[in-house]
Amino acid sequence: MSADKTTAADGSALRRLCRLRHHLLARRLMQALPVLLFATFVVFGLLKLVPGDIAVALAGDNASDARLAEIRALYGLDQPFLVQYGHWLWQALQGDLSQSLMSGEAVTVSIARCLPKTALIVGLALLIALAVGIPLGMWAAAKCGTWVDGWVMTLASLGVAVPNFWLAMVLIAWFALQLNWLPATGSASLGAEPVEALRHALLPALALAAGGIAEVSRQLRSSLVDLLSSQQVRTLHAKGLSPAAILCKHGLKNVGVNLLTVVTLLANRMLAATVVIEAVFAIPGMGGLIVQGALSRDFPVVQGVVFTMVLIVITINLGADLLYGVIDPRVK
Q1: CATH superfamily, region 108-327
Q2: Where is the ABC transmembrane type-1 domain (predicted)?
Q3: CB 289 within 8 A of CB 298
Q4: Domain extents for the chain?
Q5: Residue 121: which of 281, 260, 261, 259 has the closest Cα?
Q6: How do residues 34-92 score in pLDDT, each as one tens digit?
């Protein structure tokens, strides 16, 4: 009888946990909606402030007034601002991001072609930042106050201070032009040529990862130093656990929430920084797409890219919120 009660209690607790997670998911989605609306509204408004007439750009300088009026009516440019924004937003929420004014290609097709290149660079940069930053942070924390700690923190300060576009040009000059190890520009399809795609993405990812390595190592070192001076760690030392075991088994587990927060912020920052990095390496990714759209006053392309970027950032933040409970059950 007691076993049945225990099973029923476990089932009830599991159902409560599922309801809490569903409630958290719904609440985060409701909080994300105003962010999405605000970001797209601001960008839509700023694009309208850009000098020049898109109808003239499409029809040519010698176009007649009748032709210009026809183009404005065709693309809805003669309608009030709020009507234009509302129409675009309604279509976007249904998955239709309109068509490019310049090429006529569906914006969703352009994004589907460019997004994998950007995702590969950001994903590889995150892996490099974690693979290098975590060991450096743990090493600095274990050697707190020694020359090792000072050396790691100096490198971290340099990583934060050095602009990633300058580092990108240095990497091109050294590894591509001088040593001829890696390609300087361009990209390849990850599905068709995975090795070439990784070779093309490595230098951009390294340029992006420098700041990430510095951020991960600094934040991890700070969290672990506080943890290593706690009563809990002194108790583990008294039980005979080695410093390495304490760092690996208990240290990383206890600072997992802080580390996840750093990784989430890094992913969002790297996504924004690809605009500059892709321009330096001439990579036709999301950054290049939005720059090209802005220069040609191709409003649907710019709006579509911004909409997609905001959705990605919201998804990353939402995933991090859900993972907090997995890493630390005390987080509700």
Answers
A1: MetI-like (1.10.3720.10)
A2: 115-324
A3: no
A4: 108-327
A5: 281
A6: 877 888 888 777 777 666 667 766 666 677 777 777 777 777 777 887 888 888 888 88
